[in-house]
Design goal:
The protein has 7 helices and 4 strands. The chain is α+β, with helices and mostly antiparallel strands. It has 2 domains: about 15-75, Arc Repressor Mutant, subunit A, CATH 1.10.10; about 85-175, Glutaredoxin (3-Layer(aba) Sandwich). A 4-stranded mixed sheet has the order 2-1-3-4, with helices on one face. A hairpin with a 3-residue loop joins strand 3 (about 145) and strand 4 (about 150). Helix 2 (about 35-45) crosses helix 3 (about 50-60), helix 3 (about 50-60) crosses helix 4 (about 65-75) and helix 6 packs parallel to helix 7 (about 155-175). The radius of gyration is 18 Å and the shape is elongated. The N and C termini lie far apart (about 50 Å).
């Protein structure tokens, strides 16, 4: 018997519908198999991060012990356990990217944004993360923005142009 913990976080009905679509892919007694997509969906609902309450809500929804959910969120780096910026920039620093200039990319980002890896700008616009191999070695250095867009063959100028574009887009969405 799995113990469920009451939670103050409510999973949105649309997110429950999305989780239920994932649950249909697994045998009814294997609901925990949907924990990875369920956490991603709830993280998106929660503004890009997972509070303890949000993780507990996933555990309750899937009938899992909360510790099992915490183990998943602390193992994979796609989950964020604290608030992050509106834009997440991940720079690959693995050997091929390093040999082709990722250190220069990191330095220009740190100078422009005023933050280091794992930090968020004071205005909440950017979080900077260090990534391991993103399988773009032939076109290194590279970065990933907001878990969706990849930029390759970067130079410091190209990287700063990307930051400027993200700022403009973020400010225009806020209006």
């Amino acid at each position: 018997m799995t113990e469920t913990v009451p939670t103050a976080f409510a999973i949105a009905a649309s997110v429950c519908d999305d989780i239920d679509r994932w649950l249909k892919k697994y045998p009814p007694d294997q609901k925990s198999s949907a924990v990875v997509p369920a956490l991603l969906l709830v993280q998106q609902q929660n503004g890009g991060w997972l509070s303890t309450e949000a993780m507990d809500a996933v555990a309750a929804y899937l009938g899992m012990p909360p510790i099992a959910v915490y183990e998943v969120t602390t193992f994979y780096d796609m989950y964020h356990l604290q608030p992050i910026g509106k834009n997440k920039i991940g720079v690959c620093t693995n050997v091929p990217c390093m040999l082709r200039g990722s250190d220069d990319i990191v330095a220009c980002l740190q100078q422009r944004l005023g933050i280091s890896f794992g930090e968020t700008t004071k205005d909440g616009l950017f979080t900077l993360r260090e990534l391991e191999c993103m399988a773009a070695c032939v076109s290194a250095p590279m970065c990933q923005v907001n878990d969706k867009t990849y930029y390759e063959n970067l130079t410091p100028k190209k990287m700063l142009d990307i930051v400027d574009q993200l700022e403009r887009e973020t400010h225009s969405r806020a209006k």
